[in-house]
Hints:
Layout lengths: L2 H12 L4 E2 H11 L5 H13 L4 E3 L7 E3 L5 E5 L5 E4 L5 H5 L12 E4 L2 H18 L1
Parallel strand pairs: 4-6
Antiparallel strand pairs: 1-3, 2-3, 4-5
Amino acid sequence: MTKNARYILEIINESKSHLTAEQIYLLLKEKNRTIAQATVYNNLSCLYQQGLIRKISVEGQPDRYDNVIRHDHLICRKCGKISDITLKDLTAILQSQISVPILSYDLKINYICNTCLEQERTDHHENTKKSF
Length: 132
């Protein structure tokens, strides 16, 4: 594994959030000023293909990267916020329903976060006041 790949893996594994390639690039640039964005993207691709990191894809947003410790994700349909949630491991249940080996699964639960729900209430309240 290259030095840059090790740094990227370290950044992802130590992060408390779900970083984009751009955020990883900016953090890595603090250690290596000459790093190119293409190097970050290429290393992320390799780390993902090797199963060392997870890629979280949400429509309309840049991919985000996460550690491989088993957990699932809540994704706000309004703002795109991603939160970790740990649910019962479903591997055995899923495996019993298909005839090929499962390498892993990625459960994404869509919801509306409290911040967005509150904003909806505020917007609805403001629109109701304007109607009168």
